[in-house]
Amino acid sequence: MRVETSKRRDWSDDILDRCVEFHGHGGPFMVVGLRMGLVALERLDAHGWFDLKCVVRLRWAPPDSCVIDGIQTSSGCTMGKHNITVEEQNGVAAEFTKGKERLEVRLRPEVLERIRKVSKSGEDDDVKSVISDLIEAPEAEVFVFLLT
């Protein structure tokens, strides 16, 4: 049994709901991961699930590591299939490969700083505001890209 349809590449409330169910709660780092996976599918013209690999580079502890669940949900790269790996580093970045093509997606430092500040505050309204901004902002305001 294998999924034959391509992963959806567009943002939807459905993908957010599925990720919240998978991850257990919603948060800004999870949303960052969702968007990273969607960008990779689009820019690499990937089918998802099996033709894409990902190396996630971040602090491998919550809340930063919530990015991983977002990427798994949106891209189809999963720990179980071993087509996603994690490397410890400061910042938040993901390198996606499809065949010989490679796309690096880095979270802008100022966005990371804002997310961390809000995450520490624990203020529900502030967290919801950042999540909304992350969903609605143009890709270039959230990420830096390197395609090779």
Description:
This protein is of the alpha+beta class. It has one domain: 60s Ribosomal Protein L30, Chain: A (2-Layer Sandwich), CATH 3.30.1330. It is built from 6 helices and 5 strands. The protein has helices at residues 13-23, 28-43, 66-75, 109-121, 124-136, 139-142, and strands at 53-58, 84-88, 93-98, 101-107, 143-147. It has a 5-stranded mixed beta sheet with strand order 2-1-3-4-5. Helix 1 (13-23) packs across helix 3 (66-75), helix 2 (28-43) packs parallel to helix 3 (66-75) and helix 2 (28-43) runs parallel beside helix 5. The longest helix has 16 residues, at 28-43. The chain starts with 12 loop residues before the first helix and ends with a strand. The mean pLDDT is 96.
The tally of helices reads 6
Q: Which word captures the global form? A: globular
Order of helices and strands: HHEHEEEHHHE
Pairing-aware structural class of the strands and helices? alpha+beta
Question: Low-confidence parts lasting 5 or more residues at pLDDT below 50?
Answer: none
> What CATH architecture do you see?
2-Layer Sandwich
Distance between the termini: 33 Å
The largest sheet, given as strand count, sense and whether it forms a barrel, is:
5 strands, mixed
Overall mean pLDDT stands at 96
- Beta content: 15-25%
Write down the domain tally. 1
Percent of residues in helical segments? 40-55%
At the third CATH level, what is the topology name? 60s Ribosomal Protein L30, Chain: A
Strand order of the largest sheet: 2-1-3-4-5
Broad CATH class: Alpha Beta
Tell how many strands the DSSP assignment holds. Answer: 5
Alpha-carbon Rg, integer:
14 Å
